[in-house]
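Saturday, quiet lab. Running sequence design on the structure tokens for the scaffold JK sent over.
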């Protein structure tokens, strides 16, 4: 386990150092721990893969923990990020940027040790799902899930990972074949290449085309075997996962949604609230079905398919969070909580059991609908790809390709691009974008929108200088700009 701790308070860093030492002695283990006094030093040290756990103070001068996390996620998608602060007010915001956990100061020894034990346990499991590679950069962990293909040229073996990351080591391909080919998702397609079947977009006559747009040569004698292995892999992927207690099975891939209005299940014990929310949904063309309790909702889900479930948190005599977990096991549709409760701890608990948003009952009708619509679309619909010239948005894989090369975007950047592209030529104000993407947070005056929009535009313009896809309309907002071609949805 490799840990980084960032806090501007010298006393806190000293306390962390003492706690880490006590933990290592109590568990009879040793691991590296690096300390940073500001976010800039931490960001300058990270290139991706150096740490398994990063603990961040939220309130620091210059750049705060939330902003640091947004940058860290672009550098390392797998690192666990834990916020440490004296206030619970940032708990929901920490969830939105992918925090692993949230600790309050003063830090309790038992809770801190429990966190480290849990991370160590997860890392032991992850070791079985990847392997450690030693190269010139040091020691890095390669995850099987992120490994797209392996290539050997002369005596250099290159591991091509998701997001365009490449790890190289001086060795022979045979040194890694045994470990990879024991797994069902890997196959040898050429004497110089091993391929992850889950990363294949197409198999042509002489090559395999990856989802990232790379063409990998396939030898003639292996072509038939690779195709058979790929078809078997797809079949296994689509096989339904049967529940042991006879519940409705949920397939590994999202089912094709039938045409027609969105079907939304509204679960609330209050008749007045049911009527209020149902009227809003129906005014937007949705089919709203009602349930007064969780038991009725579970019965309806067994026999019907829904695009979304709106679930009241305070159902008398029932545990709404347990109901949410059950609903998520039975269906693919997103679950959004409705509640008068606004405590961050309760909202975090709702997110932890599978809810994707938390709408308070004092929300305006306009914002309520904006959140529901956005979450249903972001959960996936029958439209899976959006094409505009060289730009391709794959909604199923949540990937963006520019001229067949993958453009690495953060989840928020992807959602912003999708929102603008879907409504091409429509001018969105900063506040409209904020409401659609960060609907459960307080308006910050546009700072978050400006920051993410700036990064997104730089990435697009760097990858494709011949066209500016996002245009600033001064004094109004932003729009996805079409010059020559019309947008096309592929189904």
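Result came back. Writing it out in full:
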């Amino acid at each position: 386990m490799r840990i980084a701790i960032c806090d501007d308070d010298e006393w806190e860093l000293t306390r962390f150092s003492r706690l880490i030492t006590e933990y290592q002695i109590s568990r009879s283990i040793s691991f590296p721990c690096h300390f940073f006094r500001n976010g800039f030093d931490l960001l300058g040290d990270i290139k991706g893969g150096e740490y398994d756990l990063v603990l961040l103070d939220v309130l620091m001068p210059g750049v705060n923990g939330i902003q640091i996390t947004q940058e860290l996620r672009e550098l390392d998608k797998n690192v666990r990020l834990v916020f440490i602060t004296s206030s619970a007010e940032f708990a929901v915001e920490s969830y939105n940027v992918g925090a692993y956990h949230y600790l309050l100061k003063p830090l309790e020894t038992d809770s801190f040790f429990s966190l480290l034990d849990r991370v160590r346990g997860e890392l032991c499991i992850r070791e079985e799902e990847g392997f450690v590679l030693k190269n010139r950069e040091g020691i890095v962990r390669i995850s099987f899930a992120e490994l797209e293909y392996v290539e050997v040229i002369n005596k250099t073996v290159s591991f091509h990972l998701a997001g365009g990351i490449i790890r190289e080591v001086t060795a022979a391909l045979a040194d890694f074949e045994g470990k990879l080919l024991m797994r069902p998702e890997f196959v040898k397609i050429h004497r110089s290449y091993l391929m992850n079947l889950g990363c294949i977009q197409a198999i042509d006559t002489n090559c395999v085309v990856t989802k990232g747009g790379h063409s990998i040569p396939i030898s003639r004698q292996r072509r038939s075997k690779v195709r058979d292995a790929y078809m078997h892999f797809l079949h296994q992927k689509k096989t339904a996962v049967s529940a042991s207690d006879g519940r409705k099975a949920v397939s590994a891939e999202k089912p094709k949604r039938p045409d027609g209005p969105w079907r939304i299940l509204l679960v609330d014990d209050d008749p007045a609230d049911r009527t209020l929310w149902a009227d809003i949904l129906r005014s937007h063309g949705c089919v709203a079905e009602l349930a007064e309790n969780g038991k009725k909702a579970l019965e309806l889900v067994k026999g019907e398919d829904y695009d979304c479930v709106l679930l009241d948190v305070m159902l008398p005599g029932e545990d709404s969070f347990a109901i949410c977990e059950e609903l998520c096991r039975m269906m693919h549709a997103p679950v959004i909580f409705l509640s008068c409760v606004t405590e961050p701890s309760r909202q975090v608990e709702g997110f932890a059991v599978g809810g994707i948003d938390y709408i308070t009952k004092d929300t305006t009708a306009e914002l309520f609908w904006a959140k529901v619509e956005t979450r249903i679309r972001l959960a996936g619909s029958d439209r899976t790809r959006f094409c505009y010239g060289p730009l391709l948005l794959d909604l199923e894989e949540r990937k963006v390709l520019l001229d067949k090369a993958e453009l690495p975007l953060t989840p928020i950047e992807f959602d912003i691009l999708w929102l603008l592209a879907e409504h091409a030529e429509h001018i969105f104000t900063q506040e409209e974008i904020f409401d659609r993407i960060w609907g459960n947070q307080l308006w910050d005056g546009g700072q978050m929108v400006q920051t993410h929009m700036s990064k997104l535009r730089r990435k697009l313009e760097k990858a494709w200088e011949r066209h500016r896809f996002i245009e600033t309309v001064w004094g109004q907002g932003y729009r996805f700009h079409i010059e020559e071609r019309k947008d096309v949805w592929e189904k």
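Notes for JK: The first helix runs from residue 10 to 27. The radius of gyration is 24 Å. Ask whether to fix the surface positions before the next round.
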